[in-house]
Amino acid sequence: MDELVTAYQLKTGRTLSMIERDVEPGQPSGLYEQYLLEDRIYFPRTTSPAHQALVVCHELAHLLLGHTPRSHGPIDSNVVRRVLGRDHYAAPAEREAELFGTLLFHELNLEPRAGAEERVAPALTHREGRHA
């Protein structure tokens, strides 16, 4: 993932920050923000490394594909250019980002590491609450 972040920064000339966050059931697994000179990807703290990587790839796909975000309330246009949350796949941009992000994930061969099993249960609980 570090190499992917470096490649993105070299290609775009923008800083990319990866930020873990706590995610409650019903909230989007990941999201991204674009500021004037920096992009940020937020991903779930309590899930497996493989799921974290998949969420990051999905959000990175939104950035690379130049998707226009859905509105999440008032946003200061002088500070934030775009904010996007991932919470469903009904929108064409979500399906496109999911496909591209999944292909990127597989291409990078981002496999689970040893000891990941204790982080899988919270991810399943999150997804169960989100889709219930």
Structure description:
There is one protein chain. Mean pLDDT is 75; it is low at 71-89. The chain has one domain. With 132 residues, it is of the alpha+beta class. 25% of the residues are buried. The chain is globular. The longest helix has 17 residues, at 49-65. A four-stranded mixed β-sheet has the order 1-3-2-4. The chain contains four helices and four strands.
Keywords for this entry:
132 residues; four-stranded mixed β-sheet; 4 helices; 4 strands; 19% strand; IrrE_HExxH; ImmA/IrrE family metallo-endopeptidase
Instruction: Give the H and E element order.
Output: HEEEHEHH
Number of strands: 4
Helix content: 40-55%
**Cα Rg:** 15 Å
Protein name: ImmA/IrrE family metallo-endopeptidase
Organism: Streptantibioticus parmotrematis
InterPro entries: IrrE_HExxH
Briefly say what this structure is.
Helices cover 45% and strands 19% of the residues. The protein is built from four helices and four strands; from the N terminus they run H-E-E-E-H-E-H-H.
Strand and helix map with partners:
Layout lengths: L1 H11 L2 E7 L9 E5 L2 E7 L4 H17 L14 E6 L6 H16 L9 H15 L1
Parallel strand pairs: 1-3
Antiparallel strand pairs: 2-3, 2-4
